[in-house]
Design brief:
The chain has helices at residues 51-62, 96-103, 106-113, 166-169, 221-244, 246-249, 280-289, 291-305, and strands spanning 24-26, 34-44, 72-79, 85-93, 123-133, 137-141, 155-157, 198-201, 208-215, 251-260, 267-277, 314-320, 327-332, 346-348. Strands 7-1-6-12-9-11-10-3-4-2-5-13-8-14 form a 14-stranded antiparallel sheet. A hairpin with a 5-residue loop joins β3 (72-79) and β4 (85-93). The relative contact order is 0.22. The longest helix has 24 residues, at 221-244. The chain is 24% helix and 28% strand. Bound molecules: protoporphyrin IX containing FE. Residues 161-162, 164-167, 210, 212, 214, 235, 239, 273, 275, 283-284, 287-288, 293, 296-297, 300-301, 315 line the site of protoporphyrin IX containing FE.
Length: 350
């Protein structure tokens, strides 16, 4: 079986001088050995029907006590390929104990256990929860503007930027673990009966989560112009290429989201792409060969190599490659193309 992760193309980007880029990564404080990141989604046939459901979930996150509360949570929104509206909360806990205390608290258990599984209901719910050790997690940025886990983890300088393989090198475990998948390719999608059911996906080892984020609220006009003319239009093409070619790219799920104010749901000048990949090796290969991604990457690098302004945009990435068995993906009354459902076997839950 081919292991794509062991055949990286180490081509350097011409003229890229890492000294020009103020690269930073998060560090786990002493005593913190893992991070728990949960995506909690509400999908609905129309935006209107999800309002009460979204408020109920937000309240469960807001009302948690000191022992159980997430250290941070964010909100995002997108309309999926089947036209369903999706509201997502992205919540972080600093240990499994704290996450489990929240998940097993009675208000949360009552909410999850009571979710409507009537296939005629306009709502579906999902949770994708990752428990990731410090050596299998990275957050990288050139900015100090808080986003994702840098809202609560300190940043420190790093030189692991600007060459193929940088994402991998920033995961300490990659020094001894190929972070590979047992699958050569993502299995072709199948359509299962999923509405009316509670399902848990059986996931193989090596699954990689990548969230790419962009915040442009602090950009000056020149940078905004580069963003609007050279990057923004093609990012959509790159994300579409991942979504349209899951087997070739290894991309099981990609959600292109607008970030929103947690309470009001108002759009923010922030967006994120949430991706689940068969393995880091698979997405490395796609990122290194897709012309659209190469164009976005080189425009970005050029902003630092030939500066015409001081970049203020926060373009950041978060990567998790949890150990086997450390991702829980459950879908309640969701449509068959949600998350991992088309690609891996499922177990039906009571
Ligand atoms: C606005 C959107 C994006 C921008 C501006 C962007 C830009 C970049 C840049 C600048 C790099 C080089 C980083 C470095 O050397 O440290 C890079 C690498 C990479 N990107 Fe993107 N990217 C975007 C979206 C995505 C998405 C949505 C994915 C996949 C879900 C992705 C996957 C990758 C991967 C896997 C690499 C690393 C390849 C390697 O290390 O060999 N990118 N991207």
């Amino acid at each position: 079986m081919t292991d794509v992760s062991t055949s990286p193309d180490q081509t350097e980007v011409a003229d890229w001088d890492p000294k020009n880029y103020p690269g930073k990564v998060t560090r786990f404080p002493d005593g913190m050995t893992e991070i728990v990141m949960g995506l909690f989604g509400i999908q609905s046939r129309d935006e209107e029907s999800s309002i009460a459901a979204t408020d109920a979930l937000r309240e469960l996150l807001h009302a948690a006590d000191d022992r159980t509360a997430p250290v941070s949570f964010e909100r995002a929104h997108y309309v999926d390929g089947d036209g369903w509206d999706n509201q997502i909360f992205v919540a972080y806990w600093i240990s499994t104990g704290r996450y489990e205390a929240w998940w097993n608290s009675s208000p949360v258990r009552q909410w999850w256990n009571a979710l409507d599984t009537d296939p005629e209901s306009p709502l579906g719910y999902w949770r994708e929860v990752l428990v990731t050790g410090a050596d299998r997690h990275q957050y990288a940025t050139g900015s100090t503007s808080p986003a994702g886990p840098s809202r609560f983890l300190p940043l420190e300088p790093s030189s692991k930027f600007g060459y193929w393989g940088a994402y991998r090198d920033r995961l300490a475990a990659s020094g001894h673990d190929p972070l590979a998948s047992p699958f050569e390719q993502l299995p072709p999608p199948v359509e299962r009966v999923t509405r009316g059911k509670r399902l848990r996906s059986r996931l193989p080892e090596g699954i990689c989560y990548i969230r790419e984020g962009q915040t442009w609220d602090e950009c000056q006009p020149l940078e905004r112009e580069v963003w609007e003319t050279k990057m923004e239009p093609v990012i959509g093409d790159w994300v579409a290429a991942l979504g349209d070619h899951p087997v070739d790219t290894g991309c099981a799920s990609i959600r292109f989201c607008r970030e929103q104010d947690v309470t009001t749901g108002a759009d923010l000048e922030r967006q994120s792409q949430f991706g689940f990949l068969l393995s880091l090796g698979h997405i490395e290969r796609a990122a290194r060969t897709n012309p659209v991604h190469l164009a976005v990457r080189s425009t970005f690098m050029d902003m630092y190599d030939n500066p015409k302004f001081t970049p203020q945009m926060n373009i950041w990435v978060e990567v998790h490659v949890p150990t086997p068995g450390s991702i829980t993906a459950e879908y309640v009354n969701c449509h068959p193309r949600t998350g991992f459902l088309p690609f891996f076997d499922v177990e039906e839950l009571p």
